[in-house]
Design brief:
- The complex is a heterodimer of chains A (476) and B (242).
- By secondary structure, chain A is mainly α.
- Chain A is 74% helix and 0% strand.
- In chain A, helix 10 (301-320) packs parallel to helix 14.
- Chain A starts with a helix and ends with a helix.
- With 242 residues, chain B is an alpha/beta fold.
- In chain B, 36% of the residues lie in helices and 25% in strands.
- Chain B has helices at 40-47, 87-98, 102-111, 127-139, 157-172, 184-190, 208-214, 221-228, 235-241, and strands at 2-11, 14-24, 29-33, 53-59, 62-63, 72-75, 145-149, 176-180, 193-198, 201-206.
- In chain B, strands 6-7-8-3-9-10 form a 6-stranded mixed sheet, sandwiched between helices. In chain B, strands 2-1-4-5 form a 4-stranded antiparallel sheet, with helices on one face.
- Classes of the chains: A mainly alpha (476), B alpha/beta (242).
- The interface between A and B is large, with 44 and 43 residues.
Chain lengths: 476, 242
């Protein structure tokens, strides 16, 4: 058996390969400024890890005092790990790490290297959390909180990684590439919806914990339930139910850790059983692009969530928010449409520009397809929001313009294969997106303040005028 | 059919192709031979506009625009695919964008013994099967001009044989092929004309016989090629390895 140091070294190029594969997954045929892209990806990766770590420290400081908010914080940790690292984990369910099997390494050693590679994905946030959480809990709750909080956070981390890995496996093996029948496609879309709903549900649970925290409800009666049990023992309270339950969950996390090792060894079993039937139906190029994009999006866990987020938000917020004033109406509209610009740039980013250059296709066709796709997401939110505020419909021309202009900008600025390599350009486009999307609303607010015109009419007219720009950009 | 005049391709300060001119006539297979990094792939990429270039490239007298691309089938050395789709979905997408190709795809899938993979995600396919996806998608619309960059790399024996037969049929039907390979025997069998390229420049151009005459060699194309690129004496290298 070699030393751990050697395994750690071996895991580094594997981690880099895994991370880059995850980042350039939509366009492997990158032939421009590859060194710049690599440097930028490395830097942005580190930046993202630091941001998540800072967010976690901030979370502990904010939530560490009370049991309720600490429980909510644990859910945030699981949510963050699963959401941010799911795409990277796709490599663990493919055969990209099979290179290890041709090297003179035992299964035990391969498993160890894969665990180290997996650890590298989460390294900075994991280390930060493991160190910062016990220290801050010690500061808040005294000496008796130190060891329990350390054990709690380690257990939560292992469970989070295990859940992320299981999710990635489930997604790629069972959902993303199910068979090609219409029934399976419908089932897939429903599964995606539930998938996104589950994420939103987790987010909602965190919000519920926040509300409980504000209402000062005592959760001590529920202290045997995960993650409240960990929050109780982390606060230095020697509650018997919480301690017993925590020991059980800690044992579970040890099992999860062992299972992680087994799962990682089994990773090459990713072989999908599919039919041999070849059923090709030609469609118009614009439709072909929309269909292709939809398939790509619904096979990427991160993008599935993004794609369904506006719709889930529309459902959730239109139930929760009952807008009576123009302000609450605006809050509802802004909350539902907040994700649309990110979707617009994501749609552009998934295009393989090298492939497009080989095909007899005009850029205009692609822009139209992307604009339609962006508008489809907006249309899907209308039924839920419109009965709360009719003003939402007036935003359609602005949604069209935003999609058209920003797809054009993404095309000319070459924001294609990965956002991490184009962060500045992507941010610029997103800012333009928000300006175009909300400019008509700004006129609406002015009209409301000056009380000179009907807000709906002003937003609609401003949007229609703005859409001339959209039409120009789509036709260029 | 294809005319290339004074083609230059630069990657930053590095000039990969230094003013190359040649043509490919109707019904002709032209082989581009050269060592690694000679500029073969850059020339092929320039034809399709995948890299920035200087000079003139014309197909049937016209600059290569959107319409001309429907007359070209390109098999790159490294397959250009959409990894998240299945081959069936990829073929459907390509056929829809090109507006043709559906009729041919079934017979090609059968010919390449690819039925069992058509609904598997491309990302999970082996290199050989990815190459098959690339080849099928490049020829299913029956283009008149084929650009094949190391097309046989990664293909099994049966698929290689089938592709070679397809190439022969393509020529019989009046098509043209620009073809690059490192396997001299294949170039010798398939090509009507050879262009030897090294360090971005054409070293020699002509039929195999005329090249043999040029270097005064009676040997194989491999010997001619090694002589042309100045690497005929590899005895010292072999000795060093042994």
């Amino acid at each position: 058996m070699r030393s751990l140091r050697e395994f750690w070294k071996i895991s580094y190029p594997l981690y880099l390969n895994m991370y880059f594969t995850g980042q350039v997954r939509f366009n492997r045929n990158v032939n421009k400024n590859i060194n710049k892209i690599i440097k930028s990806i490395k830097l942005n990766n580190l930046f993202m890890k630091i941001i998540i770590s800072c967010f976690l420290i901030f979370g502990i400081i904010l939530d560490g005092k009370s049991i309720v908010s600490t429980s909510g914080f644990f859910l945030v940790v699981i949510f963050l790990f699963t959401f941010f690292f799911l795409n990277t984990l796709s490599v663990f369910v493919s055969d990209s790490l099979d290179i290890l099997k041709i090297l003179p390494l035992s299964n035990e050693e391969i498993s160890l290297i894969k665990i180290m590679t997996l650890f590298r994905v989460f390294d900075v946030p994991l280390v930060t959390l493991t160190i910062a959480y016990p220290i801050i809990m010690y500061y808040y709750h005294g000496f008796y909180a130190l060891v329990p909080s350390f054990l709690s956070i380690v257990s939560i981390e292992i469970l989070s990684i295990y859940i992320s890995l299981k999710f990635a496996k489930l997604f790629y093996k069972k959902i993303a590439y199910s068979s090609d029948s219409i029934f399976s496609t419908i089932l897939r879309v429903i599964t995606y919806f539930i998938w996104a709903l589950a994420f939103m549900g987790l987010y909602m649970m965190v919000s519920i914990f926040e509300i409980i925290s504000k209402l000062k409800i005592n959760l001590i009666a529920l202290d045997f339930i995960f993650p409240i049990n960990y929050a109780v023992i982390s606060s230095g309270i020697a509650d018997l139910k919480a301690v017993v339950s925590s020991i059980a969950f800690f044992a579970l996390s040890i099992v999860a850790f062992k299972k992680c090792k087994i799962e990682l060894l089994k990773s090459t079993e990713f072989k999908v059983q599919t039919s041999t039937k070849l059923n090709i139906k030609m469609s118009k190029p614009i439709i072909a692009f929309i269909k292709k994009d939809f398939k790509i999006i619904t096979r990427d866990p991160g993008m599935v969530i993004l794609f369904f987020m506006p719709i889930i938000e529309a459902i959730f917020l239109s139930i929760v928010i009952i807008p009576k004033t123009i302000i609450t109406k605006l809050i509802l509209i802004l909350s539902v449409t907040g994700f649309l610009p990110i979707l617009t740039i994501t749609f552009s980013g998934i295009e393989n520009r090298v492939l497009l250059k080989i095909l007899p296709i005009e850029n205009k066709t692609i822009r139209i397809a992307k604009t339609i796709l962006g508008c489809i997401v907006y249309f899907a939110t209308i039924p839920f929001v419109v009965f709360r505020t009719i003003l939402y419909i007036a935003l359609f021309p602005a949604v069209f313009t935003m999609n058209s202009v920003c797809t054009y900008l993404a095309e000319v600025m070459n924001v294609t294969n990965n956002m991490q390599a184009n962060t500045l350009k992507a941010i610029t486009i997103i800012v333009v997106c928000y300006i175009l999307l909300y400019l008509p609303l700004l006129f609406g607010i002015l009209a409301y303040l000056l009380k000179i015109f009907n807000v709906f009419v002003v937003v609609l007219v401003a949007g229609l005028i703005e859409s001339i720009v959209g039409i120009i950009f789509i036709k260029i | 059919m294809l005319e290339i005049l004074n083609l230059k391709v630069k990657y930053g300060d590095f000039e990969a192709v230094k003013g190359v001119s040649f043509n490919v006539k109707k019904g002709e297979v032209v082989g581009l031979l050269g060592p690694n990094g000679a500029g073969k792939t850059s020339i092929m990429k320039a034809i399709l506009g995948l890299v920035d270039f200087e000079g003139d490239i014309k197909l049937n007298g016209s600059k290569i625009g959107v319409n001309e691309k429907n007359d070209i089938g390109y098999v790159p050395e490294e397959p250009i695919l959409i990894e998240y789709l299945t081959p069936a979905e990829f073929f459907e997408f390509i056929a829809s964008v090109r507006g043709k190709g559906v009729d041919k795809v079934n017979s090609l899938v059968k010919a390449f013994d690819f039925e069992k993979h058509v609904n598997q995600p491309i990302i999970t396919l082996s290199m050989g099967n990815r190459k098959k996806v690339s080849v099928i998608s490049a020829i299913m619309h029956e283009p008149s001009f084929l650009i094949l960059d190391e097309p046989l790399n990664g293909l099994d024996a049966k698929s290689s044989k089938i592709l070679k037969e397809i190439m022969k049929k393509h020529i019989e039907n009046g098509g043209s092929i620009l073809f690059s390979t490192h396997i001299m025997e294949i170039a010798e069998k398939l090509c009507d004309r050879i262009i030897v390229i090294d360090k971005g420049r054409i070293l020699a151009e002509g039929t195999i016989d005329s090249l043999k005459e040029l270097v005064k060699s009676e040997g194989s194309l491999e010997d001619v090629f090694l002589k042309l690129i100045g690497s005929e004496d590899i005895g010292g290298i072999i000795d060093a390895i042994s």
